[in-house]
Amino acid sequence: MKLSFAIFRIIKNSILSFFVLIPVSLIYAQSNGVSEEEAEINIDFSQHIGQMSPVWAWWGYDEPNYTYMKDGKKLLTEISQLSPVPVNVRAHSLLVTDEGPRAALKWGSTNVYTEDEKGNPVYDWTIVDKIFDTYIERGMKPFAQIGFMPKALSSKPEPYRHHWKPGAKYEEIYRGWAYPPKDYEKWAELVYQWISHCVERYGKEEVESWYWELWNEYNIGYWQGTTEEYFKLYDFTADAAKRALPSIKIGGPETTGPGHPDAAKELRMFLDHVTKGTNYATDKTGSPLDFITFHAKGSPRLDDGVVVMDMGRQLRDIDKGFEIVASYPELKDLPIIIGESDPEGCAACSEADYPHNAYRNGTMYSSYTAASFARKYELADHYGVNFLGAVTWGFEFENQPWFAGFRDMATNGVNKPVLNVFRMFGMMTGQRVAVSGTLGGNAGLPYDYKTIRDQSVRGEEPDINALAAIDGEKATVMVWNYHDRNDLRGISSVALNMENLPDGQYQLLHFRVDQENSNSYELWKKMGSPQNPSDSQIRQLEEAGQLELLEPPKWVKVKDGKLKVDLVLPRQGVSLLKLTR
Predict the structure, then answer these.
(1) Quick one: signal sequence residues (predicted)?
(2) The pairing of beta strand 574-580 with beta strand 474-482
């Protein structure tokens, strides 16, 4: 892990961090009338519970043309650099026809498919290649979404394009691009030609490593056909894909919200169709399926003007999706990708128009991300499913106001605090190990995935917990102080008791995201919230958007397999401790 991004901050903060970190924290708690809480977290590095697989290394967004724009390329570069594995990227509208400007909120187009005067297909791969090239140049992988419907193929082409803006009704976006094809054979030929082109351009081995999927959320407005028409589209798509590249990985259905009974039913209907239904394209039984996808979303609300998150709702979606897949013996071992996994549903719905989204700029989003991903691992462990990835549906919005409260990773090229939690995840590899604790949840017991799934984090006590991993000579521990209520009052002394580590000297790096560290948003507010920051201010904001060390690196000694680290963690703070021999 390169540390150059933190050097300046280390120098600036080293004296303060070393001498006054704990006293200043205690003074803060006392001056705000906040009682200091104590937490004890026990980590047993000999008790392996599963792979620390990079399920977080997946991103997605609605607006594909932002991919190759200035801030889009910059953010993709930073995302690729934070991950030890290739990041998979999912974008909507890769087959949508041009109508006016290519890029807008919740809109994008590539003009891949048109027809001449005689109705013959005309293929133009220029823009979709530009998108995929941007990923490939950064060592990333397209999570290639086959959709939406080109205008020339739509069974209801007019009106085709939407002009949605924040505050408008969401259903206004569902227009001609969301309809079934008027000719399934022509659609299948488009799929065949696209995949064949990709194999020719990028090579068979490269395209084999991608995941290809059909459509998005067919169980709501994104699909204006029937369920059976979606199954027909899937069969023709999968058949064409396998003809173009027999080893291709094709999957679906990207249904949303399986925690709701109707959505759960739709997911089961799709799985029934691919396992025992009659294939519309081949008349055989069943359809190719190499992985399974669904979406999971939380639901924040306002309570007396304060944002209250609902992590439990998101976890219930995941729980039910995993449960459904696990109930099919022939499918249980297939990879599962949560195609969108977020605190709520609309990335382009800004804070100004949707006040309950006021969690996005600061540390509520970053601490939620740490706590929720840890529970996704636990849910997968519980059901014994093959959890491959969870797509964070949050990228960037080109040429928008600074810190407008979109669900994104960066604003005008400046990283938000949430991206620094992903930088922390990027340092966690190897085997996940057992963690237990004494604060959070009911009666002083730690919150676990069941408690948060059923109740979210609504009690008096915060969720103070950890995710830990060991990989040879390296151990990592992520610790968070989270509550669903967006209230920064609260600070905790946390004792980390580590055991069963190999004896010896270790270098300890302590990274932190909180109000004072790795937080461009707080710096921007201190600047007076400028909408036209100077070049100097932009450089400062870019620097503050990087992951910071809380204190200088130091050496610690493990004796008899044990090490104790004490830290003070404010509400919504996230720490990553990295131990290396």
Answers:
(1) none
(2) antiparallel
Comparing CA positions, the residue from 11, 25, 32 lying closest to residue 516 is 25
- The residue written with tokens 């995201």 in the block is 513
Considering only CA atoms, which of 194, 292, 202, 290 is closest in space to residue 249? Answer: 290
Residue range 399-421: mean pLDDT, rounded: 98
Asked whether the beta carbons of 211 and 337 are under 8 A apart, the reply is yes
| Token pair belonging to 421 | 């939690």
**Structural element, H or E, at residue 249:** strand 249-256
* Residue 510: closest CA among 462, 564, 574: 574
Burial state string for 45-82 with b = 16 or more CB within 10 A and e = fewer than 16: beeebeebbbbbbbbbbbbbbbbebebbbbbbebbbeb
pLDDT at residue 542 greater than cutoff 70 = yes
For CATH 2.60.40.1500, the residue range(s) in the chain are: 4-51+429-580
CATH no. for 4-51+429-580? 2.60.40.1500
Q: Name 198's bridge partners.
A: none
Compute the distance between CA of residue 66 and CA of residue 84 in angstroms, rounded to an integer. Answer: 24
Task: Quote the tokens at residue 4.
Answer: 């150059």
pLDDT at residue 460, as a whole number: 87
* Alpha-carbon gap, residue 60 to 217, rounded angstroms: 14
pTM summary value:
0.94
Q: Is the pLDDT of residue 29 over 70?
A: no
For residue 131, the surrounding DSSP H or E stretch is: helix 126-137
427-464: pLDDT as tens digits: 999 999 999 987 666 656 678 899 999 999 998 889 99
**Paired tokens of 115:** 């027809």
Measured CA to CA in angstroms, residue 300 lies from 89, 365, 486, 494 at distances of 26, 11, 10, 28
d(CA 92, CA 109): 9
The yes or no reply on domain 58-426 and CATH 3.30.565.10 is no
Q: Which distant-in-sequence residues (6+ apart) come within 8 Å of 322 by Cβ?
A: 336, 379, 380, 382, 383, 385, 387
3-class SS string, 421-441: HHHHHHCCCCEEEEEEECCCC
- Local structure of 101: helix, strand or coil: coil
pLDDT tens for each residue of 222-253? 999 999 999 999 999 999 999 999 999 999 99
In the chain, which segments carry CATH 3.20.20.80?
58-426
Quick count: other Cβ atoms within 10 Å of Cβ 30? 12
Cis peptide leading into residue 159 (ω within 30°): yes
